Automatic annotation (TrEMBL):
Record InterPro entries: MraZ, MraZ_C, MraZ_dom, MraZ_N, MraZ_sf, SpoVT-AbrB_dom, SpoVT-AbrB_sf
Organism of this sequence: Dyella acidiphila
Annotated keywords: Cytoplasm, DNA-binding, Repeat, Transcription, Transcription regulation
Protein name: Transcriptional regulator MraZ
SpoVT-AbrB domain residues: 5-53, 82-125
UniProt main location, coarse: cytoplasm
Family: Belongs to the MraZ family.
Length: 148
């Protein structure tokens, strides 16, 4: 559904404009309802899910037994921090200040379409991540069949 990389500017009020190329998709996929939460695996990044996709993810995460600390941490970072956002008439969404601060997202950010969700990266974290190469010793069995 979503793919591509877009440089984004976050305004002084903490809003970002959904790129025009995605606005129709966002409207169709989730009736303009997105959920923003932390990326629990990488710092400097927030996830934005279409509402229906978020409900599926939320239910899977909440189904994990919370007797394990790692499950509780995942539930806290994904479900506990989740915020429903709706684009305004100009296609802007307000990013929660606490999430912006935790991810280090200030004026400049990068929005990546990752299929079922968006990833919103701080500019610095994105540059650091994109500059890392995948080493031969990191290639998983699942990757060996790819024809890139």
């Amino acid at each position: 559904m979503f793919q591509g990389e877009t440089a984004i500017t976050v305004d002084d009020k903490g809003r970002l404009a959904i790129p025009t190329a995605y606005r129709e998709l966002v409207t169709e996929a989730c009736a303009n309802r997105l959920v923003i939460t932390y990326n629990p695996f990488e710092s400097g990044c927030l996830w934005l899910f279409p509402h229906a996709e978020w409900e599926r993810v939320r239910d899977q995460v909440n189904a994990l037994p919370n007797v394990k600390a790692v499950h509780r941490a995942l539930q806290m970072k994904l479900v506990g921090a989740a915020a429903l956002v709706e684009p305004d008439s100009a296609g802007r969404v307000l990013l929660p200040a606490s999430q912006r601060a935790a991810a280090g997202i200030e004026k400049k950010a990068v929005l990546l379409g990752m299929g079922n969700k968006f990833e919103l990266w701080s500019e610095q974290a994105h540059l650091a991540k994109i500059r890392q190469t995948i080493g031969e010793d990191e290639i998983s069995d699942d990757m060996t069949d790819l024809r890139l």
